[in-house]
Amino acid sequence: MPFFDITDVGTTPRRKLTPRQRLKVWERTGGVCVLCERKIDAVRERWIVEHIRALELGGADHLANMGPAHEACAVNKTRDDHRRTARAKRQKIRQLGADVSKRPLPCGRHSPWKRTVLGQIVPR
Ligand SMILES: [Zn+2]
Prior knowledge:
about 120 residues, 2 helices, binds zinc ion
């Protein structure tokens, strides 16, 4: 089991927005989707407040980092953000050496012993 705190990867805590704050986010772009840059028809289309730089990638939870987005556009961005976050976490785990087992496979890469081509077991 890796001894690694997932919360350390730079995820910013998320605050709930008030209706007034949502209005401010809407008016920052004049109702234009920050992802596809088309006008959002708020009556017919569902929209959400999108963090332009994702919180899980270290983006700030400030109005400057928020904009309105079509719900359909945000699905694709969220999927991409999750993919990039998972990759960043894997890289950090590897860099910290948190993925090395305390009980390595016998003669495996992290074992103090190795097996030679002739089948002899010698210290690494
Ligand atoms: Zn859009």
